Amino acid sequence: MTILIAILLAGTASSLYALSTSLQALEARREPASDSLRASLLKKLVRRPLWLAGAAAGVAAWPLQAIALSLASVAIVQPALGLGLIVLLVLGVRVLHERVGPREIGGALMVAAAIAVIGWAAPAHTPAFTRAGEIGVVVLLALAAAAPYGLRVLGSPGGLATSISAGFGWAAVGLATALIDAAIADRHWLAAIAWGIGVAAASWSSLLAEMTALQTWPATRSIPVVFGIEMVLPAALLPILTSTRPGHALSFGAALAVACAGAAVLGSSRAVARAAAPLTEP
How many domains does the chain have? Predict the structure, then answer.
């Protein structure tokens, strides 16, 4: 029952994250490309009420994700974020009257089935991170925080690069959030604050990369990349960061692959993209 509650919380958080992206994308598309991967982009966007409403949805989603991570393993919660794509599919059909075919139904079934298998195969709770694993998360957070600025220096603000940067950053945030939960449970308050600072820095850069991606790439291409990396990377890295192997490693690995494929199918659907970023698609 606890794992089911965690999955439902993760799905709710993912839906709020999707709503956040939807509202923020409307405003990001109105800003000039010259602001891509620059702090000036976010400085302009924070003056827009609609963008702030989207930010509020994202802020509300994070505690739900944190609670889910306190109830179940990262390997379960992060893939469960894919449920948000199914919610977007339903919104696309019911609100925007988009057509749904076998492709969308198949993608939804793939995500749902994969999450069910992951819930069975993955550890029920996040194992303790090794010291090397904690250092690894620090490195991931640092890379996530620096990635957008590195892309700007390299002159590579394209949709694929910025979508990968955003997905990587949100994946690092998910892992660090699990460490915040662990630090709070152990009453290591300074560690919790330190991880919180890392989450804030990575979230800023991930948001910047995601807004740039939505400026330059259709949602049907950006969403699968961001969601796929955010869902799969933390779960895939968990055995390395904790030195704990899933009890059913083959089933776990296969389910992760299916979840990623389902996210790609759903994320590239026009119905999902229109629900995630209405009025930003042709």
Answer: 1
Structural domain of residue 201, as residue ranges? 2-276
Encode pLDDT of 102-153 as tens digits. Answer: 888 888 888 888 888 888 888 878 888 999 999 999 999 999 999 988 888 8
In a domain, 10, yes or no: yes
> Residue 111 contacts by C-beta under 8 Å, 6 or more apart in sequence?
82, 83, 85, 86, 259, 262, 263, 266
| 180: nearest Cα among 106, 236, 237, 126 | 126
pTM for the model stands at 0.82
97: alpha, beta or left, given left = phi > 0 and alpha = psi -120 to 50?
left
| 115 part of a folded domain | yes
What is the sign of the dihedral through the CA atoms of 85, 28, 33 and 148? negative
Task: Tell me which residue of 69, 87, 74, 75 sits closest to 22, measured CA to CA.
Answer: 87
Residue 41 structure tokens: 């982009």
Measured between alpha carbons, how far is 146 from 39 in angstroms, rounded to an integer? 12
Q: Other CB atoms closer than 10 Å to residue 110's CB: what's the count?
A: 22
